[in-house]
From TrEMBL:
Origin species: Aegilops tauschii subsp. strangulata (Goatgrass)
Keyword match GTP-binding: yes
Locations listed in the record: Mitochondrion outer membrane
Record domain Miro: where: 11-177
Residues in EF-hand domain copies: 313-348
Protein name: Mitochondrial Rho GTPase
Coarse class of the protein's main subcellular location: mitochondrion
Protein keywords: Calcium, GTP-binding, Hydrolase, Membrane, Metal-binding, Mitochondrion, Mitochondrion outer membrane, Nucleotide-binding, Repeat, Transmembrane, Transmembrane helix
Similarity remark: Belongs to the mitochondrial Rho GTPase family.
Length: 456
């Protein structure tokens, strides 16, 4: 599996701000990457410099902003950092005092201004580095441990043209293919939302629903994501790597979900985040690992007296997945079964107070089919876009119009003295203590209980 060379992130450009102590080589670094030569005379602060879209494989242009570290320019430096997509923080390899200042001043200062952008720490003037100094890994390990916002660190020499382009490649990569949404550095594992998205992708690619990606399905996945087929030897190699590290990742039918997730964790650990991001973006996910707006309508046009309801097609689909996830066949979904049903969504949408107690449950906390459908009906009534998004997350492949119907206007119903609606909104109001909450709870089979007071 290899990443495609295309701007799948959909960004018009990346803004990289270069900061650091005076004399650490900031401006020389900027000139060197733009001209591929070492400048004889360098201004104190370089004007904005642009690297064209074809400079790196992701085909996203980079704007480099040089800064002054003088006290009078601090407000401008802070403003530039807050507008940055990524920050390159420099120190001089031949001046250990500038390295110490990373921890004593610069990184705490970036935290103080609540910088959200990733930080690339760059040791400049590598050609002047003392060979007896500790390695970069030894030097930076404690700093990176203390400051998790550091995406990566690298040393370079503008004079010798050593690893100069790599500095800005890593800065761009940190923006286009960020680590934070995918991987928990402390736990050394994929983050839950990433796992949920990859699980959904796996299920969509498992056409025969046997719980494994066959060689054919794996090749189809590769072509869809990377526009290039896998050779039989490559497929065998992928499965061999998985089987050696995680035997349950491969079975007689092919690559299992466990193996699929293991592969992506391996890509990320090896620094190949672009591979996982390419897969996610090909299947419609954004940087927050949610489906992009073009896949999910953000608003529904309707008059104030019109509502949105589920179609019979979707109701039949929901009945099918209810039965699929009712593992114990008790005609109710236990909380664990419901969590499994929504395990391909960013989160379970019914954990919020709005939906949590909106349907009757049995003594084990199980949700009946009627309760299950009523929750979907409620979510569709209150938030159609969210309802459709979750339908897509749990595998519905139809479009918005086949999923929902918009009821006719209420005044038409009154005129005809009949309605086509299946869901009705009823507002209950009255003085405190008159039994409003108890009345509504009784519809859910809850009697003689203490109910919290609802304050609208």
């Amino acid at each position: 599996m290899a990443a495609a060379a295309a701007n799948l992130a959909g960004r018009p450009g990346v803004r990289v701000v270069v900061i650091g102590d005076p004399g650490t080589g900031k401006s020389s670094l900027v000139v060197a990457v733009a001209t591929e030569q070492f400048p004889e005379n360098v201004p104190k602060v370089m004007p904005h410099t642009r690297l064209p879209a074809d400079y790196f494989p992701d085909r996203v242009p980079i704007t480099i902003v040089d800064t002054s570290s003088s006290p009078e320019q601090k407000p401008k430096l802070i403003a530039e950092c807050q507008a940055a997509d990524a920050v390159v923080l420099t120190y001089a390899c031949d001046r250990l005092s500038t390295l110490d200042r990373l921890s004593s001043y610069w990184l705490p200062e970036l935290r103080r201004i609540q910088l959200k952008a990733p930080v690339i720490v760059v040791g400049c003037k590598l050609d002047l580095r003392d060979d007896q100094q500790n390695s970069l890994e030894q030097t930076m390990a404690p700093i990176m441990q203390a400051f998790r916002e550091i995406e990566t660190c690298i040393e370079c020499s503008a004079l010798r043209q050593i690893q100069v382009p790599e500095v800005f490649y890593y800065a761009q990569k940190a923006v286009l293919h960020p680590t934070a949404p995918l991987f928990d550095q402390e736990a050394q594992s994929l983050k839950p939302r990433c796992v949920r998205a990859l699980k959904r992708i796996f299920i969509l690619c498992d056409h025969d629903r046997d719980g494994a990606l066959s060689d054919v399905e794996l090749n189809d996945f590769q072509v869809r994501c990377f526009s290039a087929p896998l050779q039989p030897t490559e497929i065998s190699g992928v499965k061999r790597v998985v089987q050696e590290k995680m035997p349950e990742g491969v079975n007689d039918s092919g690559l299992t979900l466990t193996g699929f997730l293991f592969l992506h964790a391996l890509f990320i650990e090896k620094g190949r985040l672009e591979t996982t991001w390419t897969v996610l973006r090909k299947f419609g996910y954004d940087n927050e690992i949610k489906l992009r707006d073009e896949f999910i309508p953000t608003s529904v046009k309707r008059a104030p007296d019109q509502t949105v309801e589920l179609t019979n097609e979707v109701i039949d689909y929901l009945k099918g997945i209810f039965n699929m996830f009712d593992i114990d066949n008790d005609e109710a979904l236990l909380p664990s079964e419901l969590d499994d049903l929504f395990s391909t969504a960013p989160e379970n949408p019914w954990t919020s107070d709005l939906y949590k107690d909106s349907a009757e449950r049995n003594v084990l906390g199980g949700l009946s089919l009627e309760g299950f459908l009523s929750k979907w009906a409620l979510m569709t009534l209150l938030d159609p876009a969210n309802s459709f998004a979750n339908l897509v997350y749990v595998g519905y492949s139809g479009d918005f119009n086949s999923a929902f119907t918009i009821t006719r206007k209420r005044r038409v119903d009154r005129k005809k003295q009949q309605t086509q609606r299946n869901v009705f909104q009823c507002y209950v109001f009255g003085p405190k203590g008159s039994g409003k909450t108890a009345l509504l709870q009784s519809f859910l089979g809850r009697y003689m209980m203490h109910f919290p007071v609802f304050t609208p």
